[in-house]
Amino acid sequence: MIVRPATGADLAAITAIYAHHVLHGLGTFEEEPPSVEEIGRRIAAVRALDLPYLVGDDDGKVVGFAYAAPFRPRTAYRYTVEDSVYVAPAAIGHGVGRALVGELIAMCELMGMRQMLAVIGDSANAASIGLHRSLGFKPAGVCKAVGFKKGGWVDTVWMQRPLNAGDSSQPEGRGLPIGGG
Questions:
Q1: Global pTM exceeds 0.70
Q2: Bridge partners of 117?
Q3: What does pLDDT average to over the chain?
Q4: How far apart are CA 66 and CA 91, in angstroms?
């Protein structure tokens, strides 16, 4: 498997992978799968900020995707990103998520980012929590029962990983081009 930037040719596969997780899991709090067009808009928004949107490509088949997005829109968060990662059901447990998030970390460090957050749906999501822990993320908190999906209350687990020098020095560069109140 190789990790590469997502292209327009990957839209249908990304949409299908995400739709599976929307419909069958608690890792995302969306309840209706977005359209291919909506996924295309989301990818464009990530790319407009020069952030990575990656796919795992196994011999021409997309087996997962991951991206970094701004953590929050306020300017003080311009050195912090949030990761998202989703793996095709048949590829779970084969290192796809680890490869994708590992590459996201490397790319965000090259951009000068200082913190990466994972906001993981479902405190019972051992696979995602374990993946992030294996890549140096530390627990940052749990928000109890903040989502209601599939007839039950769902927690979010927050994990955090410093990038580059983290908070040990002043950042360089301008950070992400975000802003507002």
A1: yes
A2: 82, 160
A3: 97
A4: 14
